Amino acid sequence: MWSAPVLNAVTMTLEAVVSNPIMSLTPQRTNSQVTRVPWGWLTLFVAPNVLLFTLFLIVPMVVALGLSFYSWDLISAPRFVGFDNFIAIPRDARAVNSIVKTAYLILIGVVPTVIVSFLVAVLANTKFPGIRIIRTIYLMPLVISFVASAVLWRFVFDARFGPINTILSWVGIDGPNWLQSTSWAMPAVAIVIVWLRFPLGMLLYLAALQSINPSLLEAAQLDGANTWQRIRHVIWPSVRPVTFLVTIVTLRGVLFDSFDVIQVMTGGGPVKSTEILIKYIFDVAFSQLKLGYASALATALLVIVTILALLLSPPRAGGRA
């Protein structure tokens, strides 16, 4: 059993963190004594997360980076090849095609997700009867696995029996062969990605919307601003900083989480039209057993993500605050 002083220290620490998580980490001077933070206990609480983060993220990244300089097929011993794996990427037609398809999916997946997340958040922030039920419906994609969602949407996009083409036939439109068409397969995947990713962006935008001072909207309404003008000139500038976070989170989801959707819905086809980079990395590693080359492709993907994050990061305001 823990002693009473230890339990008291833990209780005081938890109460301080809950009440004021920022100030509680700074030693506060009182009139009689200096309150010291029990760093030992804080370290004990944080250590499991740091350990898991290092074990399952940092270590695999370092191993993959080192493996990218080797040729290894999981059977024979790894053979050092230097930068040959990286040099081979521009010469690989499938690698170039997967990078182009990844850029295409980012364009038709990230931008619509950010826009839909913002518009749905504005709608969900409106108070009217039944809004809680609507918010719950909007959040349903968050609790459904990607594989189950992909199976569901594969039926929705079925050319013969899917609901989309059935509804289009009611108005005399012959729907496309969605998942078997090189032109429509990627847009179909993008629709599923938007459906899966926008609830998280909506939550982030909704939190930002609820922090806007209502007097700003009331003043704009008194000045004669209509709904669109209030959204454009008051609401959007107020939540613009959140857009960077929503974009980065959506970008990560498009680049990595879309693997499950593509694997189930199209398998990278037809004719490699939906084979994005993460799908090609999987095939190189586990179908062709080229672990070194796959690690080089994964390193290239990491570089691409880093560059995009830097390009999308908002500029820092110059000067001192």
| Widest sheet: strand ordering | 1-2
Radius of gyration: 25 Å
Portion of residues in beta strands equals under 5%
Mean pLDDT: 83
Number of beta strands: 4
Would you list the SSEs in sequence order as H and E?
A: HEEHEEHHHHHHHHHH
Low-confidence stretches: 1-11, 13-32
Which structural class do you get from the secondary structure elements?
mainly alpha
How would you portray this structure in words?
This protein is mainly alpha-helical and 321 residues long. 67% of the residues lie in helices and 2% in strands. It is built from 12 helices and 4 strands; from the N terminus they run αββαββαααααααααα. The strands form 2 sheets. It has a two-stranded antiparallel ribbon with strand order 1-2. The chain starts with a helix and ends in a 9-residue tail after the last helix.
Keywords for this entry:
single chain, 321 residues, mainly alpha, two-stranded antiparallel sheet, 67% helix, disordered N terminus
How are the elements arranged and paired?
Elements (H helix, E strand, L loop, with lengths): L3 H16 L8 E2 L4 E2 L3 H29 L2 E2 L7 E2 L3 H5 L4 H32 L6 H8 L7 H11 L6 H8 L14 H25 L4 H9 L4 H39 L11 H10 L4 H22 L9
Helix pairs in contact: 2-12, 4-8, 4-10, 4-11, 6-10, 8-10, 9-10, 11-12
